[in-house]
From TrEMBL:
TM regions (residue ranges): none
Classification lineage: Bacteria, Pseudomonadati, Pseudomonadota, Gammaproteobacteria, Enterobacterales
Ranges where the IprA winged helix-turn-helix domain occurs: 141-208
Any Pfam family the entry gives: HTH_46
InterPro entries found in the cross-reference section: cNMP-bd_dom_sf (IPR018490), HTH_46 (IPR041687), RmlC-like_jellyroll (IPR014710)
Protein name: IprA winged helix-turn-helix domain-containing protein
Length: 210
C-alpha cells in the first residue's frame, strides 16, 4: 500500500499538471505580506495553485488564522464548488501562484477524472487546518503560547528563522500582543526559551503552568 504522504504528493502534482495548463488561468507573483482575495481578480471564488513559497489563510469575517499552505499545493476546492469565498490569503513570502476560475476547474475535474485526487488533497488540507486550530484550544493564554512555541521548535532552523516569534503567535491566535510579549519575556528570563533578534533559537522544558 502506498504511503499516504506520497499519495497526496502525487495527487497534487497530477492536479497541478492539468490545471496549470488550462487556457484561462491567471499567473500571479504574490508579494510578501500583501493580502489577496478572489475579488481582486473579478471572481467570487476559484482554485489556487501555489507553485513556490507559502501563504497564510484567514477567515474573511473574523480575520482568524486558519493555516499555512506551502508549495507545491492546491487549495480552495470547496469555494470553487460553491462559487463563494469564505477566506482571504496573505503571502508569507514571495510566492508563485495560479488562479483557476470555478467553471474551468469543474470542467477539467470532469474531463481528466481528477475527483479522487481532489478529495485526497482536500481532506489533507482540512486535517492541517484542524491541527492548527487545536493549538488555540487551551484554558489559558500561556498554554496557547506554549503550543505555538513547540510548533516553531519542531521546524527546521531555516524555516523557523523566517518568523518573528511574537508576530507568529499573535497572527495565529486571539491573544493580544501585550499578553504574548509578557509571557515570552518571562520565559526568556527563566531561561526556558532562547531568542535572538525576535527569532526563536531553542526551547527547553517549558513549565506546565504560568
Amino acid at each position: 500500500m502506498e504511503e499516504p504522504q506520497l499519495a497526496v504528493k502525487k495527487a497534487i502534482l497530477r492536479i497541478v499538471d492539468v490545471l496549470s495548463t488550462l487556457p484561462n488561468v491567471v499567473h500571479e507573483q504574490l508579494k510578501a505580506g500583501k493580502r489577496y482575495a478572489f475579488e481582486d481578480y473579478g471572481t467570487s471564488s476559484g482554485v489556487l495553485i501555489i507553485k513556490s513559497g507559502s501563504f497564510s489563510v484567514y477567515r474573511r469575517r473574523s480575520d482568524l488564522f486558519l493555516g499555512t499552505i506551502s508549495a507545491p499545493n492546491v487549495t480552495s476546492f470547496s469555494e470553487a464548488l460553491y462559487n463563494n469565498s469564505f477566506h482571504y490569503i496573505k503571502a508569507d513570502e514571495a510566492c508563485e501562484a495560479i488562479l483557476v476560475y470555478p467553471d474551468d476547474f469543474i470542467q477539467a475535474a470532469e474531463d481528466f477524472d481528477l475527483w479522487e485526487d481532489i478529495c485526497l488533497v482536500l481532506s489533507t488540507n482540512l486535517i492541517s487546518i484542524f491541527v492548527e486550530q487545536n493549538l488555540n484550544v487551551a484554558d489559558t493564554a500561556y498554554e496557547v503560547v506554549k503550543n505555538y512555541l513547540l510548533e516553531l521548535a519542531d521546524m527546521d532552523d531555516a524555516e523557523r528563522y523566517k518568523y518573528n516569534v511574537a508576530n507568529y503567535i499573535v497572527e495565529r491566535s486571539a491573544l493580544s500582543r501585550s499578553a504574548v510579549m509578557a509571557i515570552l519575556s518571562d520565559l526568556r528570563k527563566g531561561e526556558f526559551i532562547k531568542m535572538q533578534r525576535a527569532k526563536l533559537i531553542s526551547v527547553g522544558k517549558l513549565p506546565k503552568g504560568y
